[in-house]
Amino acid sequence: MKDLMLINASVLTQEGMIEKGFILVMDGKIAETGPLTSLPQHQAEIIELPEDSTIVPGFIDVHIHGAGGADTMDATTEALMTMASVLPEEGTTSFLATTITQEQKAIIKALENAADYIEHYNQPGKAEVLGLHLEGPFINELRKGAQPEQHIITPDIEQFMRLQKTSGNNIRLVTLAPEKENGNKLIAYLAKNGVIASVGHSDATYGQMAEAVKAGATHVTHLFNGMRGMHHRDPGVAGAALLFDELKIEMITDGIHVVPEMVDLSIRAKGTDGVILITDSMRAKCLKSGTYDLGGQEVSVADGKALLADGTLAGSILKMKDALKNMMEFTGISLEEAVKLASENPARQLKVFDRKGSIASGKDADLVVLDRNYEVVMSFCRGVASYTR
């Protein structure tokens, strides 16, 4: 792996922005950053970037089903390879491959495939699969959204243990409904075993949410979507998500799943520490309008929306770079703050901040070069150029 020197652009480091700076990359890691005036004498391939560009840490998508025609549930090496290859185009350099509520054998197949991929195919130069997000099947039928109802089951610790073993211990996050029988028992088990317990597709009351937080829930799946909303006599899942500091919230900021005003309200309530940008995208992302499959269901994609036949939103076709831009537009936060939502916060939540989520010496060289309009110019995944516009 050759050493690289990225020069000329502004660099958003963990300590703050360096105008007209450099990044030295050695062995796939960030070796040094600084202003051009202190450029080290080092034999490396020089990549001279436009002065009006900014290098930011790679984005981490903790909730993504598919992209580029591929889906986690396809359960093939090629599917995950396709996702890992196309995601750097939108600035995503690592992600959690996300499953959907399906019959057990289909979930098991997807988990086995991901375990094999993580062990054998997670190469530099492609977005890294950091693990799995198990969305369902332990959810509430009343808030199923696009999750197939016939495959929803009651939360079950032993069943989860079997799934986790199948995944090679790679399930990092589980979306479940705490109000279901044994919901809080499963949450407590997940928390004790280092897996993020996320409330989603849930009809929990505020009181039930308080119990879930006490049990160890620390995350809320796609805030406002697939959950009991806020009411002045019961704040519900959504109100609890905004009020409990223990809970980090995911948001799909495509302006369709959540209107801009509610995105703004959420950032005011949670601050920039409490929000994580996600895409929840399905296989149609990066493809043209048409009909696609999501967990065995037909999804129509047109006008930026992915819908089931009954009009239910079925994931998104949002790109992370656009989630970032929309967040800035909807709330008025700065680029530095928006990047925190896409990089640092998910890295901290996944406990990989020691190697991901910010530009600092010793960390993986997961880097994204943005132009003045925040469009992706280049991406690097663990020190290897993955996308060039």
Task: Please summarize the sheet with the most strands.
Answer: 8 strands, parallel
Helix content: 25-40%
Roughly what is the average pLDDT, rounded to an integer?
95
Domain module count: 2
CATH homologous superfamily descriptor of the largest domain: Metal-dependent hydrolases
Spans where pLDDT lies below 50 across 5 or more residues: none
Please tell me what the overall shape is. globular
Q: Strands of the largest sheet, in order across it?
A: 8-11-12-13-14-15-16-17
Task: Please tell me how large the radius of gyration is.
Answer: 20 Å
CATH domain class of the largest domain: Alpha Beta
Beta-strand percent range: 25-35%
The total beta strand count reads 23
Give the name of the CATH architecture of the largest domain: Alpha-Beta Barrel
Number of helices: 9
The CATH topology of the largest domain: TIM Barrel
Structural class, judged by helices and strands? alpha/beta
**What separation lies between the terminal Cα atoms?**
22 Å
